[in-house]
Fold this sequence. Notes:
This protein has 4 helices and no strands. Residues 1-6 have low confidence and may be disordered. By secondary structure, the protein is mostly helical.
Amino acid sequence: xxxxxxxxxxxxxxxxxxxxxxxxxxxxxxxxxxxxxxxxxxxxxxxxxxxxxxxxxxxxxxxxxxxxxxxxxxxxxxxxx
Length: 81
């Protein structure tokens, strides 16, 4: 069971890393993005660090729209079933 949790955690770390990369590439601050999403800055930073598995599909879609990017730039293709 612990292995499954670790494997899933690595997916969230990858998503967080990709979110951070796209945000920086777009020249946005984490404060700006958190405000646009309407979430607490601490929660957004936890998302970028991959320390939360409670990211909603709506939040991911909002990030994609805000960053004006393709879903594949944030969600690792073939990793989430």
